[in-house]
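User: structure tokens for this one?
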Amino acid sequence: MTLSLSSCVSLCVSLCAYVLHTYWLEQVETHIDRLSEDPEACCKIFDRAPFFEVNADISHYNYRGITKGPHLARINERVNHCHQRMARQHGDLSSDLNVHFSTVGKIGDAEADWAAKGVTWQAMESMKPGFQGGMSSRVVVGESGPAFSVKDALELDAKLVPLYRHMAEYADAQIGNSTGTANPFR
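Assistant:
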């Protein structure tokens, strides 16, 4: 038996909805190589499954250049948790700081990367729509992994703690709490 693409998607969405309902899962992470990697398919799950929150790892969309559109907007409305990695748009899923397509500055310099609107700034900008309703977990989890141009994941994560705090403060500010400085690395 041969299934059309729409039939396959429909079957996958139905199975995801069943698993979410049966196991009382409360959140789904946006992730590459999963059904949620396609914003439209993710929204089809929204339409068929009981309500669940999104654990946004928007970097999986960001590095592929998916930065806007009606499906991403719907996903951002459900963000209540956040994983964060530094992903270069149309580049690496895991990137070190201050490495750009046109230039390479002092690798690992978070403040310079932010000022150059590098991966730290892009990560913040890509998450802002998802932070509009705050976050129920009130936590941003770093996830850098030793991959691609990242040589020391623990060192990179340590450098990114100010950004993660800034993101959490920004999300809190969206629901009435105070916010931090404009550049989290100063």
